[in-house]
C-alpha cells in the first residue's frame, strides 16, 4: 500500500515537473512577442490614459476636463456622428451583400476559382492606385462627368458634396467584399451536407434550410466577420484623406480626421482623451458582439 502511494507521488511530481518545464518553454518562445507588445502597445496605451488626465502644456492634473472638452467640441461630435453613420451603413450592407454572393458562389459549379480571385483582386490594389482611379472617375472633370456632359446633364461635384459619403461606402465594400466572402465560404464548407440531405427528406425548402441549418451554423462566422468589418472600417480613412485632404466634405469628416488634425496641432491631451473613449467604445461593442454570439449559440 505504501509503495503504491510512493509511486503515485512520484507520478504526480513528474507530471508537475513536465507541466512546469513545458510552461517555461512556451514562455521562452513567447517572450519576444510579449516584450514587443508591452513596449509598443501596452506601455504607450497606459501613457495615453495618463496624459488624458493632464494638461499637455504645464503637466497639471485636470481630472476629466479633457473629456468634457472633447465631448463639447462640435468637430468631434460631427466626426462621431459621421463615423457611426458610416459603420451603421457599411457593416450591415457588407454582411448581407457578401453572404448573398457567397451563397451564389457556393452553388456555382463553373469558374468558381476565377470568381474568387476576381472578388479578391481589389485587396491587392494599393490604396494610392485606388485613389487615382476614384479621382479619374468622380472628379468634377472626371470620366463620369464627361459622360454626363455628353448626354447634356450638368456636372455633379461628387467629392465635395454629400455624395462623397456614398463614394466612401462603395470604396469600403468594393475593397473588403472579397475577404469577407472567403470567410463566409469557409463557414459554408464547414456545414455537414448530411443536415441538408435530412432536411430534404423531411420536405424542407430552401428558405427553411437556410433559416434552420445554414444561419445557425454560420453564427461564429457572423461574429468574426462583424468584428473584422468593424476594425477594417476604420482603415477607410486613408482613402478619404488622400481624396479630400485634412478637411473633407462634412459628410466624410471621420474620427480619424479629427485625431489626425489634433496630432498635427499637438493637442495631445484632447487626442489622448479621444483615444481612450474610442478604445472603450471598441471594447463595449466587441463584448456586445461576443455576448450576442454566445446567446444565439445557446
Automatic annotation (TrEMBL):
Cellular component terms per the entry's GO annotation: plasma membrane
What keyword terms does UniProt attach to this protein? Cell membrane, Membrane, Transmembrane, Transmembrane helix, Transport
Q: Does the keyword RNA-binding apply?
A: no
Q: Which domain of life is it from?
A: Bacteria
**What processes in GO biological process is this protein linked to?**
transmembrane transport
Places the protein is found: Cell membrane
Q: Which Gene3D superfamilies match?
A: MetI-like
Where do transmembrane segments lie in this chain? Answer: 26-46, 86-106, 118-138, 158-174, 210-231, 271-292
Segments forming domain ABC transmembrane type-1: 80-289
The way this protein sits in the membrane is described as: Multi-pass membrane protein
Tell me yes or no: is Transport among this UniProt entry's keywords. Answer: yes
Q: Per the similarity annotation, which family is this? A: Belongs to the binding-protein-dependent transport system permease family.
Q: What is this protein called?
A: Sugar ABC transporter permease
Amino acid at each position: 500500500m505504501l509503495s503504491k502511494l510512493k509511486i503515485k507521488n512520484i507520478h504526480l511530481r513528474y507530471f508537475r515537473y513536465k507541466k512546469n518545464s513545458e510552461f517555461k518553454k512556451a514562455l521562452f518562445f513567447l517572450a519576444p512577442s510579449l516584450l514587443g507588445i508591452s513596449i509598443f502597445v501596452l506601455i504607450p496605451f497606459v501613457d495615453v490614459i495618463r496624459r488624458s488626465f493632464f494638461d499637455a502644456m504645464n503637466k497639471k492634473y485636470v481630472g476629466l476636463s479633457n473629456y468634457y472638452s472633447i465631448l463639447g467640441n462640435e468637430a468631434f461630435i460631427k466626426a462621431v456622428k459621421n463615423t457611426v453613420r458610416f459603420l451603421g451603413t457599411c457593416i450591415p450592407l457588407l454582411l448581407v451583400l457578401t453572404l448573398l454572393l457567397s451563397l451564389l458562389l457556393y452553388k456555382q459549379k463553373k469558374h468558381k476559382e476565377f470568381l474568387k480571385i476576381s472578388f479578391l483582386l481589389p485587396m491587392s490594389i494599393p490604396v494610392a492606385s485606388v485613389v487615382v482611379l476614384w479621382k479619374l472617375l468622380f472628379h468634377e472633370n472626371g470620366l463620369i462627368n464627361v459622360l454626363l456632359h455628353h448626354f447634356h446633364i450638368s456636372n455633379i461635384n461628387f467629392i465635395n458634396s454629400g455624395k462623397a459619403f456614398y463614394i466612401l461606402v462603395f470604396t469600403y465594400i468594393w475593397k473588403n467584399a472579397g475577404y469577407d466572402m472567403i470567410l463566409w465560404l469557409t463557414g459554408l464548407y464547414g456545414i455537414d451536407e448530411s443536415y441538408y440531405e435530412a432536411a430534404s427528406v423531411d420536405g424542407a425548402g430552401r428558405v427553411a434550410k437556410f433559416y434552420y441549418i445554414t444561419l445557425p451554423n454560420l453564427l461564429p462566422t457572423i461574429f468574426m466577420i462583424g468584428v473584422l468589418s468593424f476594425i477594417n472600417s476604420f482603415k477607410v480613412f486613408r482613402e478619404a484623406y488622400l481624396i479630400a485632404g485634412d478637411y473633407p466634405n462634412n459628410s466624410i469628416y471621420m474620427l480619424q480626421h479629427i485625431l489626425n488634425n489634433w496630432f498635427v496641432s499637438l493637442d495631445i491631451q484632447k487626442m489622448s482623451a479621444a483615444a481612450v473613449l474610442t478604445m472603450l467604445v471598441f471594447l463595449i461593442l466587441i463584448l456586445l458582439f461576443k455576448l450576442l454570439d454566445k446567446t444565439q449559440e445557446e
